[in-house]
């Protein structure tokens, strides 16, 4: 019964979002409350975490959890109906909310926080509660943190009766087009698009040295761009790619780290890049096509470094082209090749300036229609049910995170904490851009450890981005900087969620897998600093500067990959490895003098490096890991 109800609500949500995107768009205070109400029904009526824990009195707990969830789902539905019916009256009495306005607003805040707890855990809830406390306790706070303070009535009015709080930009992005992109990714996945992408990746890289691991990296780049979730990508593609890497001779630790690093980078890969990139475009008023285009070279550099690290690791292990053993079963490509057409249509629409909402609409419609053309990709009854379930899981988490992040952003706009944080960052950094970047990067990583990427980006964009722009960082570069570090936190120990998920699939130690993945993703920690100081990496500037900067950065990440793996044409001695890492840093530092010096060091290493010896035997299945990358 519950399964049918959830499927019916998910279907209603899909119809509503397709209608609003392709037929008649709604105003913000109609679209967003209805969206959150539908997501609340899906989130609260799914199997509760509390109710799923077996314990004495478990039936009582389950009944209480279900009753509580049902009540909160009705609160969100009631809030949507109330805002829809009372819209004109609410506008007329702006600044003088009634008792019913305040009561329903308080109940909605509670419902949003509990929905967030169920879908993302306690991290974002703690941040939102701290924001609420900050708004209420302002006069009692010291120094820069102090403000005039706001009573519960004023705070609830700002968060519930305006588009500055819960119904703000983050939830608007979720309601307008993130749901449709999740639906589009689910259509492709259920129709066999994941197998198609793995098959294409295998044909591109599967027959090269370390091919199975390269296949995993390329497939995860494709799938991660569509899903926008590193952990979800690990769980879906990793279940196929990690066993293939292990059969090819790679240790479980390395296989899990490759999948985690590749899935994390998928959020940085255009054309989709997950919900955070859409919020970035909306927040900064930069066209999404420009955001995706600007993110292209940094994303390519990230994956070039990862693929080369795999190549050098395989060389150190003595694996020849094709790997040791099988690349895994060949995924059929031709019967599913037509599934690439909706992806191409999506890219064309975004590149020609169509809104993400309209582009996502046509991608979903064309994807569903093309999937029905061939028996191998046709969506039957079970397939449609899986499609709705996949959409539900992804969309509810994003909506809950965006609504809770809206609370934080609303408090920031009400109290002016964003300006105070900018002043604090500027003071702590001494008015210098580089220390401010380091502080912002640390804040993004710490927040990203406990929050979804979207929520981490929203919080830091509200609090930290103004300081970076004030200190001279270009607007797009400053926001991409925060977005990058929010993403890369998925492989940053001690809380590296993507690495822990991959370790579970690989049967490896979670913490060691996290450090290994962090080593493989090391370019992702350096590239943001580079494009802040060299906007040509974001395709801003004359073509010759873009080309020159891209080439030197490419050489830099290649040298970095070789230094991390300790192998170039043969195994590197410690001093050559150190010189190679020095050359990498010189090539990644903006400036012609550092590029020339880095190129000189790189040429010298090639000239003095001995010719390759006979290949080493592949790594033993037990014992220490002789080729573990250096961990920062």
Note down, in words, how this protein is organized.
With 632 residues, this protein is mainly alpha-helical. The protein has 2 domains: 2-129; 175-544, no CATH class. The protein is 72% helix and 0% strand. The longest helix has 35 residues, at 381-415. The model is unreliable at 48-56 and 620-632 (pLDDT under 50).
Largest sheet: none
**Oligomerization category of the chains in this entry:** single chain
Low-confidence stretches: 48-56, 620-632
Tell me the strand percentage band. under 5%
* Global outline: globular
Helix content: over 70%
Structural domain tally: 2
**Cα-to-Cα separation, first versus last residue:** 51 Å
- Average pLDDT value? 85
Overall strand count: 0
What pattern of helices and strands is seen along the backbone? Answer: HHHHHHHHHHHHHHHHHHHHHHHHHHHHH
- Rg of Cα set: 25 Å
Number of helices: 29
What class do helices, strands and sheet pairing give? mainly alpha
Concise summary:
The protein has helices spanning 2-22, 28-45, 58-85, 87-92, 99-120, 122-136, 152-160, 169-191, 193-205, 211-227, 230-247, 252-266, 274-284, 288-294, 296-317, 340-351, 356-371, 381-415, 417-428, 433-450, 453-463, 465-470, 475-488, 497-506, 510-520, 522-533, 543-565, 574-588, 592-608. It is an all-alpha fold and 632 residues long. Helix 2 (28-45) runs antiparallel to helix 3, helix 20 (433-450) crosses helix 23 (475-488) and helix 27 packs antiparallel against helix 28.
């Amino acid at each position: 019964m519950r399964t049918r109800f959830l499927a019916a609500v998910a279907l209603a949500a899909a119809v509503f979002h397709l209608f609003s995107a392709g037929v008649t768009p709604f105003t913000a205070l109609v679209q967003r409350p209805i969206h959150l109400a539908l997501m609340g029904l899906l989130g609260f009526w799914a199997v509760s975490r509390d109710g799923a824990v077996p314990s004495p009195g478990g039936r009582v707990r389950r009944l209480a959890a279900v009753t509580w969830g049902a009540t909160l789902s009705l609160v969100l539905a009631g809030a949507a109906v109330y805002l829809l019916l009372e819209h004109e009256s609410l506008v007329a009495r702006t600044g003088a909310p009634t008792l019913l306005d305040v009561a329903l607003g308080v109940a909605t805040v509670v419902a949003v926080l509990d929905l967030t707890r169920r879908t993302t855990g306690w991290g974002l809830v703690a941040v939102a509660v701290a924001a609420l406390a900050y708004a209420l306790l302002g006069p009692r706070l010291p120094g820069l943190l102090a403000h005039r303070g706001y009573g519960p009535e004023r705070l609830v009015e700002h968060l519930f009766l305006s588009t500055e709080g819960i119904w703000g930009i983050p939830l608007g992005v979720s309601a307008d087009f993130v749901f449709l992109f999740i639906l589009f990714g689910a259509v492709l996945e259920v129709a066999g698009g994941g197998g198609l992408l793995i098959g294409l990746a295998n044909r591109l890289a599967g027959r090269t040295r370390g091919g199975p691991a390269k296949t995993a990296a390329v497939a995860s780049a494709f799938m991660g761009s569509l899903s926008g979730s590193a952990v979800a990508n690990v769980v879906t593609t990793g279940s196929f790619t990690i066993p293939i890497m292990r059969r090819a001779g790679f240790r479980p630790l390395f296989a899990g780290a490759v999948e985690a690093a590749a899935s994390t980078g998928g959020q940085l890969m255009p054309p989709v890049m997950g919900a955070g990139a859409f919020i970035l475009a909306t927040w900064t008023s930069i066209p999404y096509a420009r955001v995706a285009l600007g993110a292209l070279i940094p994303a390519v550099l990230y994956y070039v470094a990862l693929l080369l690290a795999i190549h050098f690791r395989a060389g150190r292990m003595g694996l020849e082209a094709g790997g040791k053993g099988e690349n895994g079963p060949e995924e059929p490509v031709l019967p599913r090749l037509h599934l690439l057409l909706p992806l191409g249509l999506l890219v064309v629409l975004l590149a020609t300036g169509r809104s993400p909402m309209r582009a996502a609409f046509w991608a979903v419609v064309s994807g569903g229609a093309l999937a029905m053309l061939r028996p191998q990709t046709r969506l039957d009854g079970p397939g449609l049910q899986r499609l709705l379930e996949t959409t539900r899981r992804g969309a509810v988490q994003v909506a809950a995170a965006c609504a809770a992040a809206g609370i934080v952003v609303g408090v920031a706009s009400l109290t002016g904490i964003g300006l105070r944080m900018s002043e604090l960052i500027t003071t702590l950094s001494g008015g210098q851009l580089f220390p401010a970047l380091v502080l912002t990067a640390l804040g993004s990583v710490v927040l990203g450890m406990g929050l979804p990427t979207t929520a981490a980006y929203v919080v830091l964009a509200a609090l930290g981005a103004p300081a970076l722009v004030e200190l001279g960082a270009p607007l797009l570069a400053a926001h991409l900087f925060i977005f990058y570090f929010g993403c890369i936190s998925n492989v940053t120990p001690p809380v590296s969620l993507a690495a822990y998920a991959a370790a579970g699939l690989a049967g490896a130690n979670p913490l060691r897998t996290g450090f290994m993945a962090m080593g493989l993703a090391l370019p992702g920690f350096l590239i943001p600093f580079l494009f802040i100081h060299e906007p040509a990496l974001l395709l801003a500037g004359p073509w010759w500067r873009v080309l020159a900067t891209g080439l030197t950065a490419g050489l830099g990440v290649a040298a970095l990959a070789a230094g991390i793996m300790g192998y170039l044409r043969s195994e590197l001695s410690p001093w050559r490895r150190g010189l190679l890492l020095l050359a990498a840093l010189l090539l990644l530092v903006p400036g012609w003098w550092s590029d020339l010096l880095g190129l000189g060091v790189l040429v010298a290493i090639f000239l003095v490096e001995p010719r390759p010896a006979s290949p080493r035997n592949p790594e033993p299945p037990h014992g220490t890991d002789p080729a573990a990358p250096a961990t920062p």
